Amino acid sequence: MARLSNMIAVVTGGGRGIGREIALQQAREGAKVAALARTATEIEETVSLIEEAGGEAIAVSTDLIDLAAVESAFARVASELGPIDILINNHGSFQGFGPIWDCDPLVWWRDVEINLRGTFNTCRTAAPMMLAQGSGRIVNLVGGGTGNSFPHGSGYASSKAAIMRFTECLNDTTIGNNVRAFAVDPGLVRTAMTELQLSSEAGKTYLPGIQKLFEDGVNIEPSRAALLIADIAAGRFDTLAGRLLRGVDDRDALAEEMDAIVAADGRALRFSSVEQAKL
């Protein structure tokens, strides 16, 4: 039996790129999948690919920053597929490039709103369902700027750092009732988001390092994150709940290092040990 058989997985941003690969991998592992995004045609294509391979999936078009729409979408998933076991927040926006005085403030805030508020809305809706059934796993995707400065991508970075802390808080709130939250950094993947960074004048001006990384051969396959998240969904990395896992990680090595990571309080947003000692 496939290790995710009889599980229901919700994948946001499931219509293309990393999200599509995550949805396909969840289905390969036996899960029934709900692909969520605003663009119906893209998630319908993801569903068609899953069904062609013998899996079961539905496409649910929704605006993640509209809480009522998210609640309606999750109610539909529960009604058509069953209780939600896995939530994977893959959606993301990064269109505000440059120093803050050059960024359109509405674009900057839109990045933050989609990334952070969208994740809040889905978690706020799914977590009570999971708590009621006594189990569940939530995976929130983070990225560049989560643990380091990103001067010309401050909106994206601020939202992703906030999602990391939010994941820690959520996990500490729910883990006692067998609901776990994880953060995953997929690494630098060539997607529609990075193509905008490469092709737009603002991206060329303020984010030339992205082009350099691709030229140097840094291009993580989306399957790396998808396989890691399938492992998380199956419970392999429960010890690391509330912490950061990365698409570039060697999953076997990571499994062996879990206890040491927890003992060192690693893979988390923390003050340095020196600063912590002063508090």
UniProtKB/TrEMBL annotation:
InterPro entries: NAD(P)-bd_dom_sf, SDR_fam. Signal peptide: none annotated. CDD domains: SDR_c. Keywords: Plasmid. SUPFAM superfamilies: NAD(P)-binding Rossmann-fold domains (SSF51735). Belongs to the short-chain dehydrogenases/reductases (SDR) family. GO terms for biological process: fatty acid elongation. One of its GO terms (molecular function) is oxidoreductase activity, acting on the CH-OH group of donors, NAD or NADP as acceptor. It holds the Pfam family adh_short. It comes from Rhizobium acidisoli. This is SDR family oxidoreductase.
